[in-house]
Amino acid sequence: MACGVPCAVTDVGPSAAIVADTGVAVPPRDPQALAEVIVRLLGEGPESLARRSETARERIAAHLLATADCGPLCNCSLITGAPVGRVSAA
């Protein structure tokens, strides 16, 4: 999320609350549901993905990166195919 990547997570611990509406949570131990959500996210149009990406990054920066720096994790070019800038907590 800090890299602006919409997440598909299992609803275990705080994962669903952290992702909220920026990604999708599926029931635990349901690989089929997880696969379907990943395919669905990958198939979203560019506008929807851009909106999810920005919202995810903003959510993490505002709520969970109070003093953290994501460092090399924010070089997401291998994941997204496009370089993503660092998220810094101001």
Could you explain the architecture of this structure?
The structure is a single chain. The protein is 44% helix and 7% strand. A two-stranded parallel sheet has the order 1-2. It has 90 residues and is mostly helical. The protein contains four helices and two strands; from the N terminus they run βαβααα.
Précis, in short:
It is built from four helices and two strands, in the order βαβααα. The chain is mainly α.
Topology order in helix (H) and strand (E) letters: EHEHHH
Quote the beta fraction.
5-15%
Number of strands: 2
Q: Name the average pLDDT.
A: 79
With strands numbered from the N-terminus, the spatial order across the biggest sheet is 1-2
Which structural class matches the secondary elements? mainly alpha
Approximately how much helix is present in the residues? 40-55%
Question: What keywords describe this structure?
Answer:
two-stranded parallel sheet; 90 residues; 7% strand; mainly alpha
List the helices and strands and how they pair.
Blueprint: E1 8-10, H1 15-19, E2 24-26, H2 31-43, H3 46-63, H4 77-80
Parallel strand pairs: 1-2
